[in-house]
Fold these 2 entries.
Entry 1:
Amino acid sequence: MGIFKAENIVKNYANHRALDNVSIEIPENTVYGLLGPNGAGKTTFIRIINQITAPDSGKLYFKGRELKPEDIHSIGYLPEERGLYKKMKVGEQAVYLARLKGLSKHDAMKKLKYWFEKFEITAWWDKKVEELSKGMAQKVQFIVTILHEPELLIFDEPFSGFDPINANLLKREILELRDRGATVIFSTHNMGSVEEVCDHITLINKSKNILSGEINDVKNRFKTDEYKFLLKSKVEDLSFLPANEYKIIDTKDLRHDCQEILIKSLEPKGKNQLIKLMSGHSEIISFNELIPSMNDIFINVVEKSNKN
Amino acid sequence: MKSKILLVLSREYSSRVKKKSFILMTILAPILFAGFFVFVGWMSAKKDTTEKTIAVIDDTNLFQSSLTDTDILKYEFIKDKSVDDIKSTFEKDNYYAVLYISKSVTDGSNGVIMYSTKKTSLSVQSSIERVIEKRLFNDKLNAQGIDKNLIEAAKTNINIRTIEWGEEGQEKESSSEVATALAFGCGFLIFMFVLMYGVMVMRGIIEEKSSRIVEVIVSSVKPFQLMMGKIIGIALVGLTQFAIWIALTLILVVGAKAIFMPELKMNPDQAVVAQNIMEHNSQMSADATTMMASANNMGEMQQILESLYNINWGLIIFAFFFFFIGGYLLYAAIFAIVGAAVDNETDTQQFMFPIMIPLYVGFYAMFNVVQNPDTAMADWFSIIPFTSPIVMLGRIPFGVPVWQLVLSMVLLVITFIGATWFAGRIYRTGILMYGKKPSYKELWKWFKY
């Protein structure tokens, strides 16, 4: 049972359909990657989850029942277009935003104190936002997003504007939040970070959900059964591999008589047989199954869907 | 949900009231205002009081008895000398001017010439003119054998009292001067406040858009709540400022008057004139003249006071706040649309123009209405919601039929509710739109989403 479920969501704008019959189920306690090219409809979908806009049709469920207006208190949202009141003091503003999410002033102060200390930014409390750098402001925004301990967190491009050190800090926090029981929706273009943090993904292209699933399943689905051997000594004759079962894609001679061979298995007979065959002719230094990166899958799937 | 509007509202209110510019403006404006009044009062009270000696060459020998010395003006009658003679010793003798009265003065207006090395003051000039005119007037009457008393007796000072008949036939003292001033003041204040605070709503929304905080906030509050919180919060800022202004202005004006103008003095020019008049009214005792004059003044003052007392203050104050709040809510909603439509203030021009037109039409109509409160134009503009807040206030001190007032108020309420609903629909889409400035057609599309 997912914490959040969207069924057949349709959203039309004046001249285009932003979401076309999109269904997504987000399992509890996971990091869920929401991927897709610019203008695919990700932001619209996120705004629908946050009840900023309403879908034209379709149903939304939160924790097994229909989504209610009060549920925004259980959701934390860090939008891509984010900012703070420039003229307002950091602490005052954080309290205000926390209270809008339903926290009492007292609770807000207590929790803010904890997080400000954790992020080592207590000294900023009385500073105006305009005095902060962009990265500093992003930290404050992150704290405000998670302060009311929402069960569902939505981060839209959370790492933009962060330096690698702070991005890493953020990544750790996101994973920690998941480990403590929260569910995270994570929207990004950065496929590297998807592989690092996501458990599940959905790929939206041209208003449609074109790919959904557990990240390893998705990767397995896009496996090409290609294997790479690094051999200690060169094998001149590869005819011991039956041509109807294996296809040699590439061979490359390396220094010290080493050789790299790329083989595609035509019949899924398993890796072990291939290794057995190969090991009779040369010493194997390394063996890899070529698993496509999320980046490759993204490009591959999106281009294919654009052609149709 | 209600408490969220309250949260937004209190942030909007306190962040503005705590601003340095607000505090400065709120305190400085009445000081400048009061300062202006005091300055004007001081200027008119403190005219030139230096003694001036004027050499008079009177060819007619008629005016020595009339042109008598006053506190400021001293006359020195010089015989057997021409203007040119005096010219050479002018500086040395320290004359202010040389007055030459030729014989032709009795039959034309060009018989008097004043020579000086500088421009002579208008008040000196006119007080001399009056003395000569009076003297000639009396002499000519005598020449015709007409009794001066007859003429004085024939003069009547008219000051129209206006009395309004009420519904039940009771009589009320009224003053159109007082009503005009009041009408104009109220109409102007509403115009100023609606414009000032309407623009403040627009700026606030643009600030939220351009700082990109708006999406964070609408994930916690409904856009409509955010908009209403802002509009109401700023209205309270306006009312606060208004209350402080009234209090401070009263304190300052009263205080300044007490310090700078302990008593109302007649200014020197008036004194000169009064003196001269007295002297030539030999038949009438000086005492009688002053008594009559002061009686007249008293009558007028009393009339003004009485008409002030008779003004329906309850209605005016009620109408002022009703139309101020109504007009503000209507225009604030429209300004909110503009704020939601654009990303930065430079893009507002295109949309500001159509808003300013009805505001200015109302403002100029109000000018006309306070002078002619009973025209069809006055009726129309005070009922149409976009101009009614300004124009109706211009009419109320003169009395407005109850049905017109009620119709105007009902229409205003309906219109601002409609405008708020309309603005809310555009607002919730507009605040999340960045990039190019939308056209009116796009605004319409947003409305329909």
Entry 2:
Amino acid sequence: MNDDTIREQIERVRDEAAQKDFEFAEVRYAASAHSGLMLQDGRADRAGAGRRAGLGVRVLRGGAWGFASTESPHAADWLSCLGDAADMSTVSASRQEEPVVLADAPAVLDEIHTSFDIDPETIPFERKLAAVRGYEEASAQAAGERVANLMTGYNDARQLEIVCNTRGTMISSRTVRTLVWHAITAQDGSVRQRSREIRAGQAGFELVEQTPAQELSVKAADRAVALLSAPPAPAGKFPAIFHPSIAGLLVHEALGHNAEADHVLAGQSILEGKLGEKVAAECINVVDDSGLPGSWGSYRYDSEGTPGRRRAIIENGVLKGFLHSLETAGKMGVEPTGSARADGSAHRPLVRMSNTMILPGEAALDELISDIDMGLLLRAGQWGYVWCEKGQYTCHAGEGVMIRDGQLAERVRDVSVSGMVLETLANALGASRDFELEMAGNCGKNGQSMPVNGGGPYVKVREIVVGGQG
Amino acid sequence: MSDSSIDDLLRTAEISCQAAIKAGAEFADSFVERGRDLSVSVEKNAVDSTNARTHASISVRAFMSGGTGWWSTSTNSEEAAKEAGRRAAELAKAAEPDPDFVSLVSPEPYPDVPGIYDEKIAGLSAKEVASWITDNIDSALDTASDALVSGDAEAAWQEAALANSLGVTAVQRTTHASVDVQVVVKRNGDVGSYYEWDSARRLGDLEPGELGAKAAAEAQRYLKSRPIRTATLPVVFGPLASRGIFLGLCSAASAEDVQRKRSFLVGRNGEAIASEQVTLVDDPLVPGGLSSSAFDGDGFPHRRLTLVDRGVLKTYLHSNYTAKKSGEPNTGHATRMGIAPTNVQPTPGRKSAADIIGEVEEGIYVALGYPAPDTTSGQVSALVDAGFKIEKGELTYPLEKTMVAGHALEILKAIDAISSDYREEPGVILPTARVRSMRVASGEE
């Protein structure tokens, strides 16, 4: 189907919905085309590509939501999808506490595409492979005889999302994303350590050309080799400094999910009832900004057609706001923040983060370290999760460096840390002026995976529980 | 659904393989599916949304001198099948040769695996699915009047066909039903929460009725949680937490990871890697099992396998590719993209879970958490999501900010008891397991 046919079919479903007794209906088309390759131990023996496309229809009737999706390209199935969504809303209405009322939002007509310098589609396979091979060779050289396994991957994706609703919105957003990654397993006898680095952005092939091996594969190789001789991290409660990647994980997992207004309204957020209150130390300023050019988590419009923007979550330690969809903004009587995102056509929009970060402070890293007698610098953030309702979280650091007598000392192996969100934020003792936003990844929520980014400065905290073995 | 619809899927799979061969591939296989899911999500004791999802896909792998090309698409028309085969072949030509690739799976008879498709689940209405979760709101509120319930109920059916260029043809219909419930109670500024779930392939195996009540009762037990002092202690992993240890071990036993030297189990085949208490069986043939099916992602017939026998690692988990590469028997654990275990069943031990806890003078009990090792290094460093301090054989108070750590091989060898009683989900056995001593980090002074 060409774009005009798709838009005509979408409008036909929307117009049909407008004839019904719905308070609101949204017809969303999502299509993607991806390609990638993987080089492993010198051989690029796997190449893949594919396409997905489908339609998701959401209706609000009697204050209750119904959603249906199909991957059929046929117009008749799209109209059936509308009927399915209406039937689903009837089921939702059978157990409602209070009807859903959406926030006002003006109709938007727009057609946008993200900018990139080099269209990945114009780059031949051989050139992509040459770039990936360059990363692998640099890693192999850096790790030398310690190399056990090398994996390097390249992916690009082209996405189209068309959002059309009964308020008159019709937005077409085209996005190009590119990603490169490298993972190395280093070995010394029976000891193995694995390290991984990713660079990803809303960009074309220029992302690869602007990512030197030193920042990707060599960085991973140096870390993996160094960890072979590193002892395990200690166990217990320690003062800690979070590298920007860990600060990014912390602000996303521990705070960001708690600031999603659907969690707040469900009674599952530790931030419920705390708007306007001091929830963190003065040095903590947190924003979620979907408008950063080129960042993996950015977008112009969310999946409800609301413009994305920079939203303050914490200012000087005070909770200033939550992330909202049309529904949560309607319930709380505030402006929507453009934070409703859907993973393809098969899922309804949920409140999600974009690029979430702690803003830089004034301190130098050396100053933050200087008065710690015994603690850890935690680096190379990998993953984390939070139990929102209690605020208990964990983050996994790819490596640590012991701090002894105000100086960085020996490196220690990967380790998870844990704490309670509000305790950790209240115990923040300082933030550095150095800042990084390099935690591009996909965040999971209710079975949906969305591209997000996170970062921050070096952040010093009074204490954190370190799940080590020493 | 009818036999003709699944025959159409098989025909589509064969068309895509033929298209790949015609385009120059030496081998090709194709997986074609379609299905429908109904799901109902609940937040704060009310239905948040009811959803119907219809899906379809084709995934073709083409091989040229061992180099693999993949193409996937979300339509399964004949036209899309031909394009998928052609595109996969083009990608296989672009990929570099892999001399370790030998050939695809050859046709073999498949075992009969009953109970993985239930017309009753396939024919459910969204209203019936909704009742699984809304009934649990009521049972949670009956148990704790201030319970905040969230969760999901889902019913799904899928029909799928797999074909390859050597003549393999396989079809299957499956159904799946699940309910998960989280209950939060908030009292005097304190929060307790717990999570329960149930999952089945047959409607008769699904028992959603008491999940809300159970989760509400447990959530109240987790009020007034607190940290303990950091120490080396016995750790008892309950049924839902021990799963992380055993599944983590199975993941590390992937022959692909072993052959690529990125598993801590490299060179351990035939060695004692766990205490004699540990026997692990992987059985994809259990009638109605959650991960049961007649064939794996390569189209190889499934079979029962003893992975660990009284502590000794007996084999790695193989796909067609890894088995032929190493000359070892194929264990039938391929997915379309890698290798994975199916229904993992630890063999029960002799002591009851109550006795295993009762013998601990001082230790911790982990009810929820996922203490799986890093498959490369073997390191475990995991949060206790929900757990209790054990004192003099009794669960005393709930834990907060508490973590467990160690190396997988040391932890597995320190398992000194697996319970005789266990939680059973279709095809899956979930016992209680005790580790003699582990590093336990927490936040008390």
